[in-house]
Write a structure and sequence with these properties.
The structure is a single chain. This protein has a 3-stranded antiparallel beta sheet with strand order 1-2-3. It is built from 1 helix and 3 strands, in the order E-E-E-H. The termini are far apart. About 70% of the residues lie in helices and about 15% in strands.
């Protein structure tokens, strides 16, 4: 059983649990849209961070290989 909240068209109270519920369908759709957008943005951020970390690892590997080549060249040239 539900009771209408005074002066609040979109709010009702569940008599058993005492919870206040919002019954505005449009507001619920907006909430889901905002939540979906936030999840997509979080996923994009994590994806970009992963790509940056991979690039940093690749650059470190390349620098190490270049150092080895320079050392090999110097030791063979002497």
């Amino acid at each position: 059983m539900f009771i209408q909240i005074k002066d609040k068209e979109n709010l009702i109270r569940d008599v058993n649990s005492k919870a206040i519920l919002n019954v505005d369908g449009e507001e619920l759709k907006n909430y889901y849209a905002r939540r979906e957008l936030a999840l997509k943005q979080k996923e994009e951020k994590e994806n970009l961070e992963s790509k940056v970390n991979k690039l940093e690892e690749d650059i470190t590997d390349i620098k190490g290989m270049l150092r080895e080549l320079v050392q090999m060249r110097n030791s063979n040239g002497n």
